[in-house]
Amino acid sequence: MADSLVIIPTYNEKENIEKIIRKVFSLTYPFDILIVDDGSPDGTAQIVKSLQQEYPESLHLEERKGKLGLGTAYIHGFNWALKNHYEFIFEMDADFSHNPEDLIHLLDACKNGADMVIGSRYIKGVNVVNWPMNRVLMSYFASGYVRLITGIKIQDATAGFICYRRKVLETIPLDKIKFVGYAFQIEMKFTAIQYGFKVVEIPIIFTDRTAGVSKMSTRIFREAFFGVIQMKLNSFFRNYKTS
User: Fold this and answer.
1) Which residue segment(s) compose the domain that 9 sits in?
2) What are 94-124's pLDDT values in tens digits?
3) How far apart are CA 44 and CA 49, in angstroms?
């Protein structure tokens, strides 16, 4: 078994799922993959099951009933990863907006002293390809808003391309992480920093999907906007000391 697990949540990703799986398995470093599928009606899970015959030891599938949200998919994946003794746990999208080759760069940064490594679109300018300008501006200024409200210094607070050391996910009480969209990504970074973990950003180039449909919605945006304020207020009443 590999020491590194890439968690990929899916909902209707049949155009991308086989390609992303094969790309990860083609890398020079051995990664295992966990697909967390939220009952995709387009047959995403069936494609994964067929590929499991080819990769029986390294490709894993967890199926959930219904579209339950990105945050809960990752929490499900985190708990599975801890149960199965992985040392490095990754978040990555299925749609190639995150370049799988950057997994190795995130892993290297973790092995060189970081506890949580963020693949950042904004640490060196704006490295986004094929996104409409309104999405770029919304994402960029959302991170500025997070820095203003929370005081954390992360340049790409909503980033979803991340490597965690096992100890981070063992320490954070995952059952208390409640947000499901972009606010989930913000909450995980904020909480890791509050616990004193070393969180670093490395530059990546983010490329908008060319196949499938974006899951972004106004509900997710509202959750992030108002959730950041609530998260900061709640932090005044939480004990972030590790046992």
Assistant:
1) 4-235
2) 999 999 999 999 999 999 999 999 999 988 7
3) 9
